[in-house]
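Researcher: Hi, I'm a grad student and pretty new to this. My advisor asked me to get structures for two proteins we've been looking at. I'm not sure of the right format, so I'll just paste the first sequence and hope you can take it from there.
Model: That works fine. Here's the first sequence with its structure tokens right after it:
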Amino acid sequence: MQSSKSFQLDDFIAGWIGGACSVVVGHPLDTVKTRLQAGKGYRNTFHCVLTIYRKETVTGFFKGMSFPLASITVYNSMVFGFFSNTQRFISKFRHGDGRHPCSMLDLTVASMLTGLVSVGLGAPVDLVKIRLQMQTQSVLAENLHLAANVSNGSNIPLRSVDIPNQRLYRGPIHCISSILQTEGLQGLYRGAGAMILRDVPGYTLYFIPYTIFCDLLKPDTASSPHPCSIWLAGGLAGSISWVTATPADVVKSRMQADAQLQRKYRGILHCIIHSYKTEGAQVFFRGASVNAIRGFPMSATMFLTYELSLRFFRGL
């Protein structure tokens, strides 16, 4: 899979192709996961699926997919391109040959660096995706207060109301411009700290299990893994990574979906404490089953398409 050159552009192209395929496969369950983690009124995964279908039909599961299709493809291109080229750079630096097999330590370093770098692009992408996915959620009473001015200039809360289906954003571009106007550039990186806590260990538990499973499923060390082995290894790695990342993912989703009219969370620690006090420890595993189910086909598709694309490009 590796070339003698330290930098390879085809890794980025293959990552882009794999990213596009994985978005189409995984977006419906991603919508369910986001609603479970940051929304209200869902008893369990099955109830969430039924509610979305009854209120919004099948199109509700694909709400906000245009932006991920355009952006997450670029994100996956960067992730896989950066990871593969970092592997080669480490191998060349340590062993003098970019094709030298990476040790477990090398893989860990490359994975953690990939997770750290990915937040730069991934945080704004995730934030916009989540805001669009949460569009049909009611504006909760705790986030909207009607007030009247009195003679002394103070505001007296009169009542709290629910406004169903309040749409704040017309689309991804309008969402980005609204966030920039109301919160500034830092608004696009709300939840980035939680994303670092999710992605640095998350990508370590993504690429390393994939490499281990591929090696175990190969008939011998000299041959390339069969497409079925790539599919299985990628799916298992995705499920492992997403399930273990669920607690940090819950915090990230809640911070990014936090209503604009009145902030509920002041930061990561406050979000964790508030969520624990109000909903218990189980809240941090909300959506774990969806993550496990969704992670398999998404990652299986991602790795299979990526590896087959690389074989095609390098066979030209």
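Researcher: Oh nice, that was easy. Here's the second one.
Model: And its structure:
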Amino acid sequence: MRKTSYAATFVALLIILVINILSARLPDWLIAKYDIMNVQVTVRYGLMQRCERSIITIPGPSKGGHLEYTDYECRPFPRSVKDKCDDENRLFCALWTSAQYFTELGIGFAAMGLAALLIGVSTHSRRRRVWRAVAGLVILHAVFQLVTFILVTELYRKERFPAFEHAKPGVGYVLNAVSWVSGFAVGIGVIVTGVAADRGHQWAAGNRAYKPIQGC
């Protein structure tokens, strides 16, 4: 493969890795909003955190005026006691925690893909072979991110956690979808370009195309 193809793959994979990290850390995969009397509550659920913002509005001393008090608190999610992981929400907690592990594995494979690219482009002989490892790592990354997406989607769709009844997908959820779709696209692109380079197509292999030895 051309160096430019590897460079483009490196940039694309680096962007995907950044998206993965943001998605895993953002506490807004699912967002639930409630209005209770004079209190507005917004609860954001991430793979690792639950953040709650409460805005309390009370009448002010002046006519037509009002006072607002805001409270914002985050905690690890899910928790065995507060989220009843030892009781009725045991299955939910197990699956949600599995989604955390899968997305971390996906991030690991993306990082390994970047390392393989840096090592593989050092010599011409390595460039001929390393695309297979890169494609495999990128596809594995995309598979694990897709598994995370499926787990969260099923838990949300079937309301496995009571609070999800009022929840809507947030930025973290969307970024995860972008990451695995992009991962599959990059992986397939590397495979197509690598196979074409092995077959001697100049657009993929460059001026030093791999040509089979005749008469052997």
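Researcher: Is there anything I should tell my advisor about the second?
Model: You could mention this: The beta strands are 30-36, 39-45, 49-59, 66-76, 167-169.
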